């Protein structure tokens, strides 16, 4: 944009400069020509005065030598039937023509102009005073004047471009700040705001962006508050379930039931706490996927042992940091592993793998598999009688962070779900 403004300034200033410099250049040339011819007329007039006083050749020679043009061999007096006094630069025919016409004329030569002035003497004879003006005198000062005009035009262009660049830089800085803020906000940094600056239009755009961002955050926070309220409603049936578990008395089954109720209550508390946090507090968060998977697998392993499921865990020793909030990673891991328990037989094995080099999280199972992967990734669609939100949640989190979710066939015979983190992979925070 700055270069575009500079080109406009260059074109505009050049047009204005040329509109003034070309006429001024022509006027300068005309002035130089008139100055040289004026000096020639002055020399001729002084010789006319001398001829009016005396026609003696000796007097005329001294007068010619004393004149500035005569000293430069540019002045001559042509008397009738007498030798030329001084140095002549034109032909005899030109002198005869001037004498016959008895008028002042100019004759062009190869390298200048001759000023010829006819003078009527006392004996009715006509003398001709010749003043030669070379091109050097006719063009004296013109190159310097033209170079000066060109320099002034160039200086005007430089000043105009500099001024346009300074003005454009202010606009560009403001536009770039607004563009960067929009890109950051679109990438998920909902705390991003812009300091309005620049022209009035860009300031209005900055204020509108901030209002839009605040509006989006308020809407998202409202939705999260609604989710927290809905989660809180689970406490009523949970309390009833806890009372029923307490009535079971002692025994391993009762202890397992009470432990499950405690785990469910802890999960509901975590959902409510996470939902009540503002969406801006979640933006820019990072987490170690390996640590999250270790923690969640430790919980799911207890259920797997109760069901008698064989499972395998691979790749959790090395850390894999991603620019995704921990709550989202927990939700995705639970959704993927929970699907194994929900949609496969109790004796079906499963495996959990974290490939830190490729930035992938892989869950495989030995169940019946997924017949229609596209429907499984469609929100609200499920071929197993569930809500159809689990895989959609994972796919949405993956897409929003530059990754993707792929469903394939597992070596165990069932489904193989690969969550690729993509652009979300980052360096370990200092």
**What characteristic shape results from the CA principal axes?**
rod-shaped
The averaged pLDDT comes out at 82
CATH fold descriptor of the domain at 285-430: Heat Shock Protein 90
Helical coverage, percent range: 55-70%
CATH architecture label name of the domain at 285-430:
2-Layer Sandwich
Q: How many helices does DSSP assign?
A: 14
What can you tell me about this protein's structure?
The structure is a single chain. The protein has 430 residues and is an alpha+beta fold. Among the domains are: 2-143, Beta-Lactamase; 285-430, Heat Shock Protein 90 (2-Layer Sandwich). It contains 14 helices and twelve strands. Strands 2-1-5-4-3 form a five-stranded antiparallel β-sheet, sandwiched between helices. A five-stranded mixed β-sheet has the order 7-9-10-12-11. A two-stranded antiparallel sheet has the order 6-8. A hairpin with a 2-residue loop joins strand 3 (105-109) and strand 4. Helix 1 runs antiparallel to helix 6, helix 6 packs parallel to helix 7 (200-232) and helix 7 packs antiparallel against helix 9 (252-276). The protein is rod-shaped, with a radius of gyration of 50 Å. The model has no long low-confidence stretch (mean pLDDT 82).
